[in-house]
Structures are given as C-alpha cells and as structure tokens.
Structure to design on (768 residues):
C-alpha cells in the first residue's frame, strides 16, 4: 500500500516524536513547520522536489482543476456549442430542480453504485483471503484475476453483450441447463442495470483484490498468534484483527471505487445506450447526451456540477468515517 | 553541484519554451510552399479508395498535399461539431443528409456556387439534399440505396424462388410474408403458419425487421404512402395513419408473424442482426449497398440482391447521398475549393465506382460499380434499378443529432411490443419536432 507506507515513513520521523508509536489519524498526517523562516528553509532545501512535482502539478492544474472551474462557470451560461454563450444566471439550476429526467438519472446512478460497490468489495476481500495462501501456482492465479481489469470497458461491453444475448448468449444457455428461463437481460428494464453492474464487478474485483492482498500481507503474524493464544476463532480473528487492520486499504478502495462507480459511462454506452426506457440512463451518460448529442453545454455543465457535488459529499462522509477508525502504524 | 544542476534545468526549460515557437515557424506558408489540406471521412473501406484519388489529385496539383483523416462514424459528428466550434474543422469533409441542416444553418459550410457545378448532371436527390436556400453546399459525391440482400443457399435449401417482385401490405397479404414464412424454421422444422410452431425456438428467420430507420421502417412508411416530413427543414409527420400502419407491419413481422428475430436481440446499440445475416441465420436483410464491402468478406454463402418489397403505394426506397463539404473558415480556402472542384469531376467518381465502393452521384458512371461486383459474382443491378425509380431522402431538418438517440430509444420499446405503435409514433414525432429550430 503506497499511501500507508508513505505515512508510516513520516510518522517515525522526529517531527512528531509523541506520535511515533501511537495510532495516527488522517487529520494528523501532515507535519507543519513552525515559522515563515521554516517554510523558506524547506523550500530552499527541497526546490528540486518541486521541480519533479512540476509536470504532474501542471497536469493536475491544467487538466483537472481548470476544467472544473470552467464547468462551474459554464453552468451559469446558455451555450449550444455552435452559437455564442450567453449568461443565464441560475436558470440552468432552476431547470435542474424541475427536471424529472435528471433526478431519475441520479437515482439510477445511485442504484448502480449500490449494486456494484458492496458486492465488489466483499468479493475482493474474500478473493484476497483465498489468494493469500502459500500454495503452488498462487502467483498465476493472482495474475489471472487481474486480467479483466486490463481490458478496455468498450471491448468488454461488446463481449458481454454477446454473453447476455437472450437466445444465443452463454449466460441464458447455462441457465437453461439448470432449468431457469433467463430474462432478456439488456432489453429488460429490471435487469439491464444489474447486468451492467455485473460486468463492472467482474472487471474490477480482481484489481481490488490486489490492494487487499497487499494490505493482508502487511498485517504482522504476531497479532494472529496473540489472538489465537487468547482463544479467538478464525472468524473472530478476521473481524477483530484482519478487518480493522485493512482499514487503510478499505479507505483507499472505497473512495476510488465509489468515485469510479458514480462516473460509470463506457459500458452503458456500448451495451444499452441508456435504454431500455431510460433504465440505464445514469448521470454521466445523461451528461454526455446533453453535451455531445444535444450540444447543450450549459445544462450539461450544470449536471456535471451536480455529479461533482454528490461525489464530493460521498467522499467527505467516507473521509470522516475512516479517519476515526483507521490505524496506519502496525509496527 | 547545485549550480550545474540549475543550468541543466534552465537549458531544458528554455528548450521546452522554444519548441512550440519553432513548430509555429514551420506552418506559416509563403508563396510557392506546399499547402496541406485535411480530408475527413468515416468509412475505413473507402479510405483505401480515396488514397488513390488523392494521389491523383496531388499529382495534378504538386503544391497541395492532402492528409486523409479517418474517424469512426460514432465519433465523427461529435468531433466535427467540436472542431467547428474551435475553428479547427478539416478543410474538406464528408457530409451526411441528416446532419447537413445543423451545419449549414450555423454557417460552417462554404457556399459552393463559385465551383459552377452543373447540378443537372448529378442524382437529383443528392443535389436536393445539400441545397439550402437554392445554393449548393456540398459536392454531390455518391449515393447508397436500400435493397434486399438475401442468402441464396437458404433459398435453395428451402426450395424457394425469389419472386421477381416482392410485395407487402399492412394486412399481411403479399409475397414478402409468404416467402419469409417458408424461410423461417423452428427447432422441429416447423414454419410459423404451421400448428405446433414454437416462436421461442426459431433456428432460422426469413426476414430481418428491426429498429433501424434508414433501411427499415422509413421504407415501409414511404411505400405505404406515409409521410416522414411535411417539407425539407419542416416538421416530422410520421404519425399519420398510413405511417402508423406501416410501422405496425414492421413490428408485426417480429411479434405477430415471428419471421424476424425478437427485438430483445436486435435492438440497437446491438448490431446482432448483421451478425445473424452473415452467419446464415437470417435469409433476407434490407441493407444499403455501401454495406457490401463489409458483408461479403464474412458471408460464406452466395449473396443475392433483390429490390425492396413493393407496398400499397408502390416501391419507394431510401437513397442516401453523401457530399463533400468545404469548411467556410478553412485557412486554405482556395486550395480546398480546388480539391472540391476536382472531386466533382468524373475522374475521382469513376475511380471510386470502379473499385466497387459506391454509386457515384455523377450520372453515367454506375456501370463500373455494377461490373466490379459482377466479377465478385454479385449482381447489384437491382440497386441501380431502384435508384432510377421512386426514392426518398432521410429527414432533412435541424436537431436530428439530438433526436436520433431519442427516436431509437422510443422505437426500441415499440419493436419490443411494450409501447403501442401509434403511441410510439406520436411520442417520437412530438419529441422530434420539439428539437427542430
């Protein structure tokens, strides 16, 4: 775990002698120099570090922060791409408040996130536990589960469209063998969104497993030995030792996955194009339609702002939740 | 050694700053310098043909270099629009009938009157499609016609002859349905009009009816006397009685007569129906002739071409003409017009026809196309015959880019049988007209 290691290195530095051995919360992670002179000294001593950060800092500013500000600004304009933008004040936001379709999209996005994240996370932890054994060929299996992550979502979407074909698809053929009549997956308003969620779970579980595996391998064996001596059952050991000590990993995985899930687009685009009957019209897809098919960039920016605010809120809640419960120092 | 390190950094920084300046210096073309034009298209098969065309053009115009840029159709219009906004559109690019209104009304396309083309020499549909306020804004390039591709092997196996004239009517009479039934077979060898036929276990379908406007329902509508629009740049009208009847027939082929695969398999964005035809699971498949270069390499059976079925109002098929537009703000307008002028002549249009890509829009050159396909054992003359009869353009009006996904989504529901045809047509017309500016 990259972030956990980075923190551990800093914790054992003399900057915070008092905390060197104790659990460190997220809020205490940054060490602050005492005076302006201290800032100066630091800057001079580390100027080359800033030079190295430079290119990626430029990237963040130019391709993340700047567009963010531009989108916020554009949400106050009427702009239909080929004609000039005109200032609209809060008109787009008033339109949003009354736009049932937009709220429907947000709802479908939330459903998608709830379908994806819990299942994907539980599966990834279980898979990590399974692959954290010492056995022959383990490296091969670990690699195997990461393979789906390397494929592009567009290609996966196409392949899975075949799998989900109601007549000739592999899935319904298999269900047929056990006597179950499978649904018309991608043209059924009930099943289309779960089908897309399934593809994404399938793609990302192995990748998330990697993080949990690294997390598991960072947990010292003595803790398990001590727990065993105290008479803790394997299940109890999992819930009392493993899971709490996986919190830094969990934090990272949850934050990045939730953001990713809220931004789902490619698989929807290839597999259902928002249909059937708007059942897979998630917010990001709606934004795409608004901007690039209806060329209504002002309103698309307003919808983007909504998505941004939702993601920000969800992330802040997680930061609060995990900062109280996370131990980074295991030594 | 901090000072050396610093000098290195400064040198690198300096170099980085200078590079774009140097690059800029290169493009400021003086007199006698070579001008590079960008020519954008979306068809990867035709790109090969246009490489030869451009080579011929460059030979005659040594001071012009043409860069061909290929974009997949899905991204083409998005990128085109973004480029038009940014002022970076290609100098010459392909234009499609239903996108034309949006671009011409926003002033993206150059008026081609200076080329002084004799419009009488081109297919009238193509000229009409790119005329706005009696001025031409696109070089009539080619046209594609919707015809009926069929799998000769399946016909032979079923002992069925393709009739000289297929016919259809909203009540299910006519030869199309008869033939389609004979070619639809379920797992126990039964046809849809036989007792015990199981529509859930069909192994081979007689016909492909699906949610595709260009090759499917718009043709039913027109051959039943329905009207897509009241006039070019006007309003949609395909919810009139004749249109609704025609749409119902398209849906009935799937859900009532069971001679076409269920919409759950064929609804866009799936392109399943193409696959099914190429695999020999569907006997008859309405398709634009521009699809031939894509179908033939993968279809391992004898491919037949027939005219589209005749409806109560006769035969009326979609003829979709493409044109080449010149960007109104091109930095090399003079050279771009020169290229456009060349593309309007017989030499390039004949080259494209003779290589089997397209029917050229310029009259009198189609034989080369027919000959090319005859050598491949495919008789495409029904396409040519159709183009001389009654044809119709795709709806020409603003807002189609925004309307298209909505239209497809509503009609997906209609083909699934979840939305009544009249309701679907009303919804579509209403939403379409709301987007017309």
């Amino acid at each position: 775990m990259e972030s956990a290691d980075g923190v551990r290195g800093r914790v054992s530095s003399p900057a915070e002698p008092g905390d060197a051995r104790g659990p460190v919360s997220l809020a205490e992670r940054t060490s602050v120099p005492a005076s302006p002179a201290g800032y100066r000294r630091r800057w001079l001593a580390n100027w080359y570090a800033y030079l190295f950060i430079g290119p990626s800092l430029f990237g963040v500013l130019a391709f993340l922060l700047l567009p963010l500000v531009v989108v916020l600004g554009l949400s106050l304009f009427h702009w239909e791409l080929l004609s000039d933008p005109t200032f609209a004040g809060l008109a787009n936001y008033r339109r949003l408040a009354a736009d049932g379709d937009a709220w429907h999209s947000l709802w479908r996005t939330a459903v998608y996130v709830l379908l994806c994240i819990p299942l994907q996370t539980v599966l990834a932890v279980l898979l990590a536990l399974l692959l954290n054994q010492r056995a022959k060929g383990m490296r091969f299996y670990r690699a195997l589960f990461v393979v789906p992550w390397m494929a592009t979502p567009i290609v996966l979407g196409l392949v899975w469209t075949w799998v989900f074909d109601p007549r000739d698809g592999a899935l319904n053929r298999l269900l047929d063998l056990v006597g179950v009549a499978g649904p018309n997956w991608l043209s059924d308003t009930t099943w289309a969104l779960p089908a897309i969620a399934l593809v994404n779970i399938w793609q990302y579980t192995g990748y998330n497993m990697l993080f949990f595996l690294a997390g598991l391998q960072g947990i010292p064996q003595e803790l398990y030995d001590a727990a065993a001596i105290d008479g803790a059952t394997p299940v109890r050991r999992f819930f009392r030792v493993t899971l709490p000590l996986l919190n830094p990993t969990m934090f990272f995985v949850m934050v990045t996955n939730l953001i990713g899930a809220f931004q789902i687009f490619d698989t929807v685009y290839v597999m259902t194009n928002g249909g059937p009957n708007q059942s897979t019209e998630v917010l990001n897809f709606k934004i795409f339609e608004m901007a690039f098919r209806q060329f209504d960039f002002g309103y698309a920016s307003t919808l983007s702002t909504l998505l941004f605010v939702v993601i920000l809120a969800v992330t802040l809640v997680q930061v609060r939740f995990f900062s109280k419960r996370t131990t980074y120092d295991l030594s | 050694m901090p000072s050396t390190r610093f000098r290195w950094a400064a040198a690198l920084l300096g170099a980085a700053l200078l590079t774009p300046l140097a690059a800029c210096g290169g493009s400021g073309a003086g007199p006698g310098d070579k001008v590079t034009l960008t020519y954008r298209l979306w068809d990867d098969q035709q790109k090969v043909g246009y490489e030869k065309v451009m080579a011929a053009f460059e030979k005659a115009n040594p001071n012009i270099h043409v860069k061909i840029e290929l974009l997949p159709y899905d991204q083409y219009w998005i990128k085109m629009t973004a480029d038009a906004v940014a002022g970076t559109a290609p100098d010459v690019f392909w234009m499609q009938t239903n996108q034309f209104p949006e671009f011409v009304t926003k002033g993206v396309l150059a008026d081609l009157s200076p080329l002084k083309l004799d419009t009488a020499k081109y297919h009238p549909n193509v000229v009409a499609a790119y005329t706005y306020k009696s001025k031409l804004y696109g070089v009539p390039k080619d046209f594609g016609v919707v015809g009926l591709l069929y799998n000769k092997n399946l016909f032979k196996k079923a002992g069925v002859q393709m009739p000289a004239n297929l016919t259809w009517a909203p009540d299910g009479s006519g030869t199309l349905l008869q033939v389609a039934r004979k070619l639809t077979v379920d797992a126990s060898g039964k046809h849809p009009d036989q007792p015990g036929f199981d529509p859930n276990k069909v192994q081979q379908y007689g016909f492909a009816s699906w949610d595709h406007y260009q090759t499917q329902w718009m043709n039913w509508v027109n051959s039943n006397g329905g009207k897509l629009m009241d006039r070019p740049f006007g309003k949609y009208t395909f919810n009139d009685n004749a249109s609704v009847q025609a749409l119902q027939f398209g849906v009935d082929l799937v859900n009532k007569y069971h001679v076409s695969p269920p919409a759950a398999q064929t609804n866009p964005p799936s392109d399943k129906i193409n696959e099914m035809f190429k695999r020999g699971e569907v006997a008859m498949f309405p398709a634009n002739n521009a699809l031939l270069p894509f179908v033939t390499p993968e279809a391992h059976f004898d491919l037949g071409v027939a005219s589209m079925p005749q409806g109560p109002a006769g035969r009326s098929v979609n003829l979709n003409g493409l044109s080449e537009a010149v960007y109104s703000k091109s930095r090399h307008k003079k050279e771009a017009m020169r290229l456009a002028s060349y593309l309007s002549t017989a030499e390039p249009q004949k080259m494209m026809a003779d290589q089997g890509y397209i029917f050229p829009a310029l009259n009198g050159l189609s034989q080369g196309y027919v000959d090319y396909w005859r050598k491949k054992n495919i008789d495409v003359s029904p396409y040519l015959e159709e183009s001389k009869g009654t044809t119709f353009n795709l709806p020409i009006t603003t807002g189609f880019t925004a309307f298209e996904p909505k239209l497809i989504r509503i009609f997906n529901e209609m083909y699934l049988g979840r939305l009544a045809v009249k309701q679907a047509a009303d919804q579509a017309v209403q939403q379409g007209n709301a987007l017309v500016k």
In short: Chain B has two domains: 34-143+321-373, 145-320+388-435. Chain B touches chain A through 31 residues (CB under 8 Å). The first helix of chain B runs from residue 2 to 27. The CA atoms of residues 235 and 381 of chain B lie 34 Å apart.
